[in-house]
Amino acid sequence: MRTSIATVCLSGGLVDKLHACAAAGFDGVEIMDADLVAAVESPEEIRALCARLGLTIDLFQPLRDCEGVDDATFADNLRRARAKFEVMRRLGASMVLVCSNVGTATIADPEVAARQLGQLADAAAEYGISIAYEALAWGRFVDDYRDAWNIVERADRANLGVCLDSFHVLSRGHDPAGIEGIDPAKLFFLQLADAPSLDMDVLSWSRHHRLFPGEGQFDLTTFLSHVLRAGYTGPLSLEVFNDTFRQTDVTRTAAHAHRSLRWLYNSTVRANGQLDAQVAPPQPPHAVDFVEISGSDLSSVEQILDQLGFDFGGGHRTKAVRLWRAGEASIVLSEEPRAGEPHIEGIGFTVTDAQAAKRHAVSIGATPRFRRTRAGDAELPTVSAPDGTGIYWSSASTAESWVAEFEGGQTSEIDSLHGVIDHLNVALPWHEFDEAVLFNIGVLALDPGTSADLAGPYGLVRSQVMRTRDGSVRLAMNLAPPTAPLQPRHIAIRVDDVIAAAERARRSGLPSLPIPDNYYDDLHARFGLDDEFLHLLRELNLLYDRDANGSFLHFYTPTVGKVFFEIVERRGAYDGYGAASTPVRLVAQEDRRAG
Amino acid sequence: MRTSIATVCLSGGLVDKLHACAAAGFDGVEIMDADLVAAVESPEEIRALCARLGLTIDLFQPLRDCEGVDDATFADNLRRARAKFEVMRRLGASMVLVCSNVGTATIADPEVAARQLGQLADAAAEYGISIAYEALAWGRFVDDYRDAWNIVERADRANLGVCLDSFHVLSRGHDPAGIEGIDPAKLFFLQLADAPSLDMDVLSWSRHHRLFPGEGQFDLTTFLSHVLRAGYTGPLSLEVFNDTFRQTDVTRTAAHAHRSLRWLYNSTVRANGQLDAQVAPPQPPHAVDFVEISGSDLSSVEQILDQLGFDFGGGHRTKAVRLWRAGEASIVLSEEPRAGEPHIEGIGFTVTDAQAAKRHAVSIGATPRFRRTRAGDAELPTVSAPDGTGIYWSSASTAESWVAEFEGGQTSEIDSLHGVIDHLNVALPWHEFDEAVLFNIGVLALDPGTSADLAGPYGLVRSQVMRTRDGSVRLAMNLAPPTAPLQPRHIAIRVDDVIAAAERARRSGLPSLPIPDNYYDDLHARFGLDDEFLHLLRELNLLYDRDANGSFLHFYTPTVGKVFFEIVERRGAYDGYGAASTPVRLVAQEDRRAG
User: Fold this and answer.
1) In chain A, fewer beta carbons within 10 Å around the N or the C end?
2) Domain ends where: A238, A271, A304?
3) In chain B, helix, strand, coil percent, each to 5?
């Protein structure tokens, strides 16, 4: 597979973009004319730079509104095109994109479009240039790839073919199966973009909200399957217009983009049963093995764990790392002088084959991460998530072999806490959200679950749950509004009896997050709870939710640095996260910070 | 006119919101139940705080999905409602909003809705509470205010009336003239919101994109005229859900909100010919009288003006202020030790009646601004724009009387520059944009002109021109992407011969912003300009645009601090700003900064 990307996906100047594309591992680029026009470097310099960086210039995009016009307009279009073909000669680019006319077309006749594209192709041929003709979803007369192919067939020129763009096909709901009917020699180019399901005009949707493959709701695996079965052998190229990516760091976005293509290609190959021996399969996690908290002083975290009823699992025999356990829930504390405030530093997952999980992750562009081990220490394959969090895998067959490295742990007390890690709640800056979605799908093999907009005191928080199908691993990702302070992250421990857990925490002197009386009056109004139960909830600062499947009770610890804990109990088949109570929790935490 | 605002418009906790509403001058508030539920203060405390602040609680919003349901569901709804009526009793609120059912309604019969609302009203009556019933634009069976009124009429309870919301009426394109057919005794409440024209689903449009009156595309003056003619005498209340306002400073947003209501009310009264003697009419500007640049060291600015061919107009007789003039274009330089980098500090406008302009501005909430004058100095009525820029007005009859305060100016040289201020280009942080639109419409009496999305190297820049109809005053407002550095602002001087101006600047050693060769190759392709003209443009770093009306030539000076200058020439009836060249200019300026 050759990979390519349109320079319009990235921020900054053209030279910076090219360096970033090469560093990310792309084989080629589509150059948007506007990027070249604004560059101080000549076409010859850009050509030479691409050659040095090992990038081919797969496509150039200088033309719009060419065909379907009257003869005088077409003559001027041909003049414009020749001037751009001249630029392409200097640039060393041999394929040009022509999108269906959106602005100036006055003639709906495909015969006229074919004649004019044929003439354009003949002019291009003089420069050794091929034309890839693409139906835009909002083209005035041509807005379906099948019509574009029909016009290309009519024009019948060797250097005229079609360009397919997944957005233009799927946004209109056109069946991509028809792609297999196109002559493979005429499939000149392929542009890929994902997008969220949005009910809005297709032009704004395309201009502002495209996403990299895997981050939206399009079925790109099926789309690409049709294209590959049709016999397409050119590059897979990304063309993603997105307000966020245009603003973010170019090197990081290019790496992110390349990961999305590798993920899509691997998924498609796998879906078609054409298993490449080199491509390790993804390893969906069975459970959260442990969560690692790091900081320069973790004594407050340790105190909270102790007060919650965690057992001390011992100190690591060679590192300044301590283990705390509550049944299946393991928290690893790594104290390092320069680690700053307490924060979630890493997450361990149990998978079928830990080495395969890492090989798969690296194959789609995850960054390997160094983990210091001494003789006899367990090997935990490790990568870094885009936000820097460490991802550790241990094989189910050897799970918890690392636990034996901890010495001096205490045996379980009678009233110690027993639970599992129910979910992690991870706040992300707005411009890192889509990248994290892709990482969680592609590398961690999680599926998108429910999503919701929650009203916080400083703006709406978009929440997206990523999970395994059975719910054994759940990450709730929160997208904070741009101006709001980034929320701390938290670890939710699920227990069988949250009331007992709350009472135990209270006995040991742990203050739980105080919840206002008005909240309990509201619970009374919403659910008609009986007075005794309501009184108990109020006394213990427990939050409550109920739906058709069951109910949810939970409480929060104070925040230490950038982390806090939540203790939850799921009754019946309740599968949510108490979202209705989130605004109350956010305000209460804000009050604590301010107070 | 009584003014009110829904607490959901603002950020932060309920107590902060109430203080901000009172400080902004609101008479009352609509309290959103979620704000109360999350508050640590009891309903009694909130009631007492509102009383101390002089705020009435005009509406409470705790109920949804009440009517059009089966009997068992309605019985539970009634139970929920009674619990909330009890909270209202404690809160001292006597009107509750009931929106048409969007979630649980199963019965489309207005008779059933009327019966259930009647029962709800009877329960409310026990608590002395009135119900305002509102048709949501996306209500399942009731989505038109005329249907809501029909149901209220059928139910026929003294304490049941309708609530009108401009968004729900205008977003659906319903004719607001029918409001005049509603019994005025049944017009219980009025919610006002503006919105941009967007082609998207109405629920997302409402939740995320509402604007304060004057900032969007709804004809609220006509809407409010119908409501007032119908005999409505209750408060005008704002209900604006907007992702931006929820994040911005609560005090500033409340003041901004109150300005929008005053502007709307004044405009509506004026449009109906009911001139209130206390309400001064707006004063559309005739011209930009001057622009004031401030800074701790303005020598670089002074050198650029000198090199451009501005004449030194003298020093102020009592202040450290100097005047530079190029024909009609006046630049005032205020050097102050702590003024920081050079920046645009103020803008002077010529109007028919300067005192009336200020009275009008203050009547809709603009902040008066102190301006130090000595005996004999001209009185320039002054306010501050929301971003802190000073706005000065001088009456046309006494225009430039302030010029006489400057002494020691030089007489015009032979090749000095002659021009007028064509436009100002003002970059704004994203969360101050709508506020500035309202200020420019309401206080400066400018109209929205063209708007466009321009691709900058670090994201799309939304550009909105505000202008007088004749184009004599133009402000181009640019909304920068959140993470991009805020662009400097600039002053565009229009001359008759920009080529001569560019040559003069070059002779005096002023480096103009260098424009890449590729840009001129592109001009050649786009416009087929002849070689000699193209050569001239290239030599002088002139940018060029052409449309059906005429053409536009311009160049830029280097940036000093936060300001730079543009010299423009409009040929024929060209009325734009060379937007197609803006990406090239932005990249060139970015290269200068980095280089």
Assistant:
1) C
2) A271
3) 35, 25, 35
